[in-house]
Amino acid sequence: MERILHNTNSLRSEADICKLWEVFEAIDPEYDMKVPVCYARPRDGRTQQDPTGIPEAVHDADIFSFKFDVYQDRIKAENLHDLAFSFFEKYEQWEKCGKWLYLWSYAMGSGKSFLSCCLANSIRIKYNLRCRFVSAVDYLAAVGDGYDRKGEPDPSAKYRECDLLILDDLGAHKSGEWQVQEIFRLIDERMKASLAAIITANMPLDGQKIGERTVNRIYSKCVSFHLPEESIRAKIAQAENEKFLAEVLGKK
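RESULT FIELD:
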């Protein structure tokens, strides 16, 4: 019997939703009504103002938004599903054991960045954590900007100090001595402070040009998962285009 991956909206239970969201009533001034209307919002009000850096297009996505069943490789899809939900539902256990995630694939658009954002949104709301998302390229740019701002707050410090860091596209940056040194400092400081991270990359860890010390530290911390080599971004875009054309052309 084919296994059903419980990630779609149609299969989302009320209990799952209640973990992340709460219902409240308010009078909407845009409507000529004096009767309160029901709305939903994240349970932690602080997180709504939290500048996570998560891309706007996926800022409201959570773990239930990720379509694991879009992959053709069903075995890997099921394993990825189980790993992701374990990280979400048993996050405190992962954190206590000091374990991170390293999600990688050669294929562009395989879902690793999107999944990391879904996990970050779900975890920060459920556990009331400070979460930050940054690409490795942008992190290094922030470090360089900090050196230029002598006497001012370091804009890169928030990535070394937040509760959960999403470090996206590790290895897409230059691999000069300075870059290697700063990536090592980021990983090393987070390890010493027992702060969690999810790292995404377009290559396995042993292919990274980030210095042996950094690779060894990540090896010691991360559970590595090789995502299916499929561009689900292209599949989703194709499905959306076909649906749009069917609507505008009047086809069922």
